[in-house]
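Kindly review both lines to help learners:
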Amino acid sequence: MLSNLGNQSERAVRLGVFDTTPMPSNFARNVMDLLARTEYRRAEGGEDLEAIYRLRYKSYLASGMVSPNRDRIVADAFDELPNAMCFGIHIDGELVSTLRLHHVTREHAASPSAKVFADLLQPRIDAGETFIDPSRFAADPDMTAQYPYLPYITLRLAAMACVYFEPDYCLSTVRPDHAPFYRRVFGSSPVADLRPFPDLNYEVVLFQAHYSSVAAGIGQRYPFFKSSPFEQRMMFGKTMNGENAPLTILPTARFFAQAA
């Protein structure tokens, strides 16, 4: 069985995951319609990771975030860490975006944000604070116009991880022009000003959100962020020896919408 069953249902209720209020807007309904065509896949090696590395390159090159390279991939040492989780997001069976998450603890303290902002974050990690650190968001530039709600579908993974792992904060290391999105959607607040980010052609700022304080409100405004404990375990839980990880994971938010 997958580990970390614990009291997931009780915690999920407390964080507002099972709040079945009606959807507040046509916007939310449109995102939910796209979510119904979406599958998530956790990449643990082989062709799945290769496809994600190539999608990163395609996305970042198109936006000027990286320079051309012979291998046509974007990968780094953080992909190989034991606390790293790389996901591909598929719509109608096609890979359209990707996100990487690190669960940062004293036992597994390394992550991109923890390196770039080590002077600020390492003392907090040493003191026992924990974080979800999303990074390597990338979307297929040929699909972004077709799927304008793709950022919400992709960053849903970060919201789910915050419910599952219950970190103290969710970090956002982003370009300054993207910061208003994280303020609006996640209630994030600034922690540090501009700094260079390794291997990218721009500087980043650091924001953080105390997710447990804002989760219920986020679930009401953005019901497509909701998920069941089962989906969370499938997405983030560790498999026992000899057990295969799930190939694809279907979002459960649409079932909450049907119950509302």
